[in-house]
Amino acid sequence: MTVSPSKAVMSSIPEPVWLPPQPPSTIPINIYRAHINRKFGVHLRNSHELHQWSVTQPHDFWIDLWSYVGLIPDLPSGISQAYDPEIPITEVPRFFKNAKINYAENVLTQPHVDPRSTALIGLREGGDLDGEKWSWIDLRENVRKLRSSLLRSRFKEGDRVAALISTSLWSVAVFLAVASIGAIFTSIAPDLGEEGCISRLKQVTPLILFVDSHVTYKGRQSSNHAKILKIVDKLEVKPQVIIIPTAQVEHDDFLTLSGFLSRSLTCDKLEFARVSFSAPLYILYSSGTSGPPKCLVHQHGAIIQHKKIAKLHNSLKPGEVVFQYSSTSWVLWNIMIGHLSAGTTLVLYGGSPTWPSPQAMLKIVEHHRVCYWGASPKYLQELESTRCTPKEQYDLSSLRMVQSGGSHLAAEQYDWFYRVFPTHIHLTSVTGGTDLVTSWIATDPAGPSYAGEIQLMALGHDMDVVHPVTGESIKDSGASGELICRKPFPSMPIFMWGDEGNGKYKAAYFDRFNFPCWTQHDWASFNPLTCGATIHGRSDGVLNPQGIRFGSAEIYSITEAPPFLDTISATLCIGRKRAKKDMDESVFLFVVMRPGYSLTNDLLDQLKKAIRIGLSARHVPRYIFQVDEIPMTLNGKKVETLVKQVICTGELPKQMSSTVVNPKCLDQYVKFYFIESRTSKL
């Protein structure tokens, strides 16, 4: 087996696409590095050396970080270790065992922020661009009322509260109220299907379920009433349903939010239950492609990660406006609330990011003077297809960072971005996951950015790239391999709900190698010249023709970039190796065309030539076919593993995750199990 080196290793260091425009001494991560140098007598020269110190001295790092980012309350005196170093990462050691904390308290306590200033701006698709604004006073009061109503409903620490609601003002308030009590919150985007909702809620048995009365997406508004009746009917433990009116409510089956809030008492002050650092905070769900979703239980202590990312990696300051497009089912929603802990103003948008056009998001950025904008690579690709030039059409002078996550941001997208956006903006890519509710590899606001690379390993995360068979570290060679983490970190899930003995947890992250490490199942490489990282795709979807391993993201960087954007809507690249039929793996590229276009022989030749020149002859797929659809999750991610399963077996999956929004499209892939000819067009 050959593990392919990254192209960057085989050439000289490239020109950066962005450099910090501000004086180095004013950048928060540099200020923090200077603090570490003074306090610990070291001489760290840049963010990469700071990261190396943070993983070689993890106890000094995490203990110091607590006070540096201003966590409440102070750490108990005498703590010299963040966790027990004798307990390996595979046993999920608890951090700060004697410390008490509350996530909501650390978000809502903002001594350096004017309480009359805006905390939240709520926008809905098709609504007024000004939206609804809550000051910090409003936010705290609404959280207080919700908290009081929960307590008067006999809610207590450890109880579960679920929310089937869109990204909105009340989504944030409900979460913070639940967290303030020490109860456990879980959220689901309202566009998830009935079975998807049921498969999640029946596992975690919430006692209360907050629900939006209506959902609006791509110009269509629909009532959730019938859906809620069916969901509740299928749950053994019947939750009390609280309806949040988002349009005219025509049924009185359930209590409305105003009725629920009428239970609150003015004598109930906004207080916070300080619980153990590892106490359950919320439950997130794996977006697996088969079987019921895994329920990942995260801890109150995740706040230390969120403040670290907000203040150091993203340089967020009080009063800055943050606009992260995300549904409540996506981990970026949780991380976004962590940004609020830096005293920022959040723009909360419920609806489609591309309706009536992708430029609708740019209008929000301009109107609300957004400083930090979170957008996916797919959205940026859709924006590129409009051929707009934002720097000429919008006032983006306030915007200093555009952060992309969820999938690989191709080098070509960086090139496009800096042609049409102001060059002062820091375009940055990150990678993390629902499983750690933060980033593995993040932004360096003090260092150069290179096209197609993620800048900096997140502080405190001891990341490595290892050979998929031997487990040997190959990170410094620049070769691609399995992405792992070697040391514990304080946002590991404390357990999976219902996973007796932690068997599923260990199988998911710790069984891959015969040494202690967390395996993320991403195929990655680090560039020794730039210290940047590239995620090439999921390691379970790595392509391996003739023993040459590479990730699908490498193919997408060609097929979903100019000059193909005008004609191709999306592509999917996977390998097929059929049991008892194939000695080697064949690479398939499936292409969805834009309306009015088809996969012609000329376009086939262009695709093959572009892949051969941009990557190598070995990367050129054996088969290229046009299809009607590619299976996608609710969060807009391609589901490569399902298609791979179908074309390798000739059968449809027996179980299907409810997060797949278009499962019927898999029917069209069964025929590719039988394809033998080299003809590459249907």
UniProtKB/TrEMBL annotation:
<keyword id="KW-0472">Membrane</keyword>
<feature type="transmembrane region" description="Helical">
    <location>
        <begin position="161"/>
        <end position="185"/>
    </location>
</feature>
<keyword id="KW-1133">Transmembrane helix</keyword>
<dbReference type="InterPro" id="IPR045851">
    <property type="entry name" value="AMP-bd_C_sf"/>
</dbReference>
<dbReference type="InterPro" id="IPR042099">
    <property type="entry name" value="ANL_N_sf"/>
</dbReference>
<dbReference type="Pfam" id="PF00501">
    <property type="entry name" value="AMP-binding"/>
</dbReference>
<dbReference type="InterPro" id="IPR020845">
    <property type="entry name" value="AMP-binding_CS"/>
</dbReference>
<dbReference type="GO" id="GO:0006629">
    <property type="term" value="P:lipid metabolic process"/>
</dbReference>
<dbReference type="InterPro" id="IPR005914">
    <property type="entry name" value="Acac_CoA_synth"/>
</dbReference>
<feature type="domain" description="AMP-dependent synthetase/ligase">
    <location>
        <begin position="112"/>
        <end position="488"/>
    </location>
</feature>
<keyword id="KW-0812">Transmembrane</keyword>
<dbReference type="GO" id="GO:0030729">
    <property type="term" value="F:acetoacetate-CoA ligase activity"/>
</dbReference>
<protein>
    <recommendedName>
        <fullName>AMP-dependent synthetase/ligase domain-containing protein</fullName>
    </recommendedName>
</protein>
<dbReference type="InterPro" id="IPR000873">
    <property type="entry name" value="AMP-dep_synth/lig_dom"/>
</dbReference>
